[in-house]
Design goal:
heterodimer; A: 517 residues; alpha+beta; 29% helix; globular; B: 313 residues; 14 helices
Chain lengths: 517, 313
């Protein structure tokens, strides 16, 4: 495949890796660190599966690398691919892979291994979660021992974006062939900075330094700095914070909004802006009454004082957004016309819809914070605007099942940040989208989504996503609320805690952390 | 006694079967299934359907249950739908944690409950007695999760004496293991201590009115000797019974305590399995928990029969 012009992605490739690697202090090598993730256990070490795609990077980045890495500004840096080119017209990609890299089991990393992993990720029979995102791939070819080509049927920048996520994490083909992919449920074998040692169910994962790791820091010294890492599973975020404050762990993944100020103001621990966040919103069921009526959806939107709700829940950390995108995302725009807080207009819309007031509605929420707090505030606001709102609190599986099967009226939801808008907007607003749990289906929106994901030019994509978001607001696909940050917290045990190395998606890059003196 | 024990052991079997049947069908009719835990919330309907078919979740419920029962009868409790690990292995890994927690909690409860109950009985209707009874009421009323967090804040954060959470296997690092279990055992043992304290006080007061105790007083024996050598022995008989019967309630507390203190026990495993609808794991947990409760009740009855020959079968 001959490129007609060099993609802008290639031009950014070489310098960005150095830019993301911190300057080395005196002697940072050595030591062991314990961190904590909130949850029961790790679902799986198979990058193609798992129920926590936005947070699993915290431990998956220990063991795996991708061909390229996404930067916060949307550019890409080399990783296992030493260089790469993207044809701007066809979207096809060519990767020149880094020589001398081996998997943790000694298997050499080469074009065959890379092709094996990408084919597995794109294979519908493998049942992985990235199949739809990689559907534009028509062929994966090994064109040299360390050269790989990925051919697309039509251009889609979302494919490269997906390959920079866990879809592109390289697992040892030898391990899969010998042990079966199911074995990845309890063990990781990649090329990452740490080697998997052990997992104790309900306790944690132990990992030790990969002595043959390919990456070096800005001074050319080998990474990772640490000798060993333990990832503990702590089910309760409040207990995880106590562990951090007591010095039992050096970092925790999630901080409850109620604790933001506590962490921010306490000496010795730091609230880490990961750039991650979640768009809290109201998820209407468009497939049945009452919210198949746009007037009633609009009435709900007018009944909600988003600024007041946001401030009550998040205080100084609040960000009212018009849609599902966070302020740091490149497709974010506030040039959108969002219905304002107007309870009288809400009542008028209900009258126009011909329903009796107070109009009974049932808001379903997952039993978690801050959803219960948000729901109570919304209930009060709705009841002041001619609604009679009740709250149905359920556990997560029940709510997800109800929403997937469109059995809810409306529900409180939160969508985590995806650094490509297709991962959020396309998934939420497109007919059959993976996050469309509302029955939303509009031809013009679908057409725009299809065009946007197939357009390479970012400015053009921006305009399309702006148009889609305005459609979403006008038709009230979702009830906009606010964007809530999802910071981590870390202690002074980590030497570079003040500029903690993170991946573009906000997940930890523990391979670049070192212990404080 | 032996025929009694054998009969009781055989009676456990139908109890376990009935419980497993009830729990299976309750779980099966709950909304949602394990595909959310396996694939995440963003999975498509096709992916969920593919996974459900692979796991046999589309088979009729009676077929699923009988398949599990037939397998369980041979000792195979099946595989976790989520992790594909054998359920038996998972439980074997987790059971020692809960057993250690339960034993330590009972020891804490007895160590607190009996002496305070005796003291309250011997100082009946004094301020001390009233205070202890009020504390006992508080101990029963205070929720486990709240008490656990309070203890962590006090002993881990403020005083820095104990670690907030975590687990080390006892036979791997006994001292570390016990140190990590102090707060969880206190959390779980407090409620039981309150019950034991109240029972000890009540039964001791009753025993102190018996003729043989009056005789001992009349003979001029010291009060402490009357209480500790003569009265307490009989006064503790109901305490043994109550303690044994509380084991079931202790398992409830274990779920919450294990979650708060990040202990990888059976209780926490069962709770997570329920939330993720991992049916084989739920069934396995129920079998183990029910058997444990029944066995403890049997041991309690045996102990009771030992100390009170009048009730021996």
């Amino acid at each position: 495949m001959t490129s007609r012009r060099t993609s802008w992605l290639t031009a950014c490739a070489l310098g960005a890796l150095l830019a993301t690697t911190p300057a080395l202090a005196a002697d940072n090598h050595g030591g062991e660190l314990t961190v904590a993730i909130t949850g029961e256990t790790i679902d799986t070490f198979d990058p193609l599966f798992g129920s926590r795609p936005t947070t699993e990077g915290a431990y998956m980045n220990l063991f795996y690398d991708t061909l390229v890495r996404l930067n916060r500004d949307g550019t890409y840096s080399p990783a296992l691919a030493e260089s790469f080119e993207v044809d701007a017209e066809t979207g096809s990609m060519r990767f020149s892979l880094r020589d001398g890299v081996t998997f943790h089991d000694g298997t050499p990393f080469d074009a065959e291994a890379a092709a094996y992993n990408l084919r597995r990720a794109a294979d519908p029979d493998a049942g992985g979660r990235w199949v739809d995102a990689l559907a534009p791939i028509s062929e994966i070819s090994v064109v040299g021992p360390m050269d790989l080509e990925v051919t697309l049927e039509n251009p889609s920048p979302f494919v490269l974006f997906t390959l920079a996520s866990s879809a592109g994490m390289m697992v040892s083909p030898t391990f899969i062939e010998n042990e079966g992919a199911e074995a990845l449920g309890r063990r990781a074998v990649g090329t990452g900075p740490f080697v998997f040692d052990d997992i104790q169910d309900g306790v944690g994962v132990d990992a030790s330094r990969n002595p043959d790791y390919w990456e070096t820091d800005a001074d050319g010294d080998p990474l990772p700095y640490l000798d060993a890492v333990t990832v503990r599973f702590i089910p309760q975020s409040s207990v995880a914070l106590l562990e951090l404050r007591a010095g039992g762990v050096a970092a925790i993944q999630d901080v409850s909004p109620n604790d933001f100020a506590v962490v921010d103001n306490e000496d010795g621990i730091h609230l880490i802006d990961t750039g991650k966040g979640a768009a809290s919103h109201i998820n209407f069921n468009h497939s049945q009454p009452p919210f198949n009526d746009v007037l009633i959806r609009r009435a709900v939107q007018h009944a909600i004082d988003r600024a007041a709700t946001c401030e009550a829940v998040l205080g100084a950390y609040c960000a009212v957004v018009p849609g599902l995108l966070g302020t740091a995302e490149w497709a974010y725009t506030d040039n959108l016309d969002v219905p304002g807080y107007d309870p009288e207009q809400s009542c008028a819309l209900l009258a126009e819809a011909g329903v009796e007031t107070p109009f009974p509605v049932d808001l379903m929420i997952i039993r978690r914070e801050p959803d219960t707090q948000i729901a109570e505030i919304l209930q009060a606001q709705l009841n002041m605007a001619c609604f009679d709102a009740t709250i149905a609190v359920q556990e997560r599986t029940t709510v997800v099942d109800a929403m997937v099967n469109l059995q809810h009226q409306f529900a409180l939801g939160q969508y985590s940040t995806s650094l490509d808008p297709h991962g959020t907007i396309g998934a939420a607003y497109g007919t059959g989208g993976s996050r469309n749990r509302s029955g939303i289906s509009y031809e013009d929106t679908d057409a725009l989504i299809a065009d946007a994901v197939a357009t390479v030019d970012r400015d053009a994509r921006f305009d399309m996503y702006e148009e889609i978001q305005q459609q979403a607001i006008d038709r009230v696909y979702f009830g906009s609320l606010f964007w809530r940050p999802r910071p981590s917290a870390a202690s002074g045990q980590i030497g570079n805690v003040e500029a903690l190395p993170l991946a573009a998606d906000g997940n930890w890059r523990i391979g670049n952390w070192w212990l404080a003196d | 006694m032996v025929p009694f024990i054998i009969r009781r052991l055989m009676e456990m079997v139908p109890v376990v079967i009935v419980m497993s049947l009830v729990i299976f069908f309750i779980t099966a009719i709950l909304p949602g299934d394990v595909t959310t835990a396996i694939l995440g919330e963003d999975a498509t309907a096709e992916q969920r359907a593919q996974t459900r078919e692979r796991l046999g979740l589309d088979d009729p419920l009676p077929v699923q249950y009988l398949r599990w029962l037939a397998s369980a009868a041979t000792g195979d409790l099946g595989h976790s739908l989520r992790s594909n690990e054998p359920v038996f292995d998972i439980i074997l890994q987790r059971a020692p944690v809960t057993i250690e927690l339960a034993i330590l909690s009972i020891l804490v409860a007895l160590a607190i409950g009996i002496p305070t109950g005796v003291y309250a009985a011997m100082h009946r209707n004094t301020m001390a007695d009233a205070s202890l009874r009020t504390l006992a009421l508080a101990g029963v009323a205070v929720p486990n999760f709240w008490l656990g967090i309070l203890l962590i804040i006090l002993f881990s954060l403020w005083l820095g004496w104990l670690p907030p959470s975590g687990y080390r296997p006892f036979f791997e690092a006994p001292l570390d293991s016990l140190r990590l279990m102090i707060l969880p055992a206190l959390t779980m043992g407090t409620g039981l201590a309150a019950v034991i304290m109240r029972q000890t006080r009540a039964s001791l007061l009753e025993v102190m009115t018996q003729d043989y105790v009056r005789t001992a007083k009349a003979k001029g024996l010291p009060r402490s000797k009357i209480v500790y050598k003569h009265a307490l022995r009989n006064g503790l008989i109901p305490v043994v019974t109550v303690t044994g019967l509380q084991i079931g309630a202790l398992m409830n507390g274990a779920v919450i305590t294990e979650v708060v203190f990040s202990l990888p026990g059976v209780g926490r495993m069962a709770a997570d399995a329920i939330f993720t609808r991992d049916i084989p794991l739920i069934q396995g947990a129920i079998v183990v928990i029910v058997l444990a409760v029944l066995l403890v009740n049997l041991l309690t009855d045996i102990a009771y029969a030992y100390v009170n020959p009048k009730v021996r079968p």
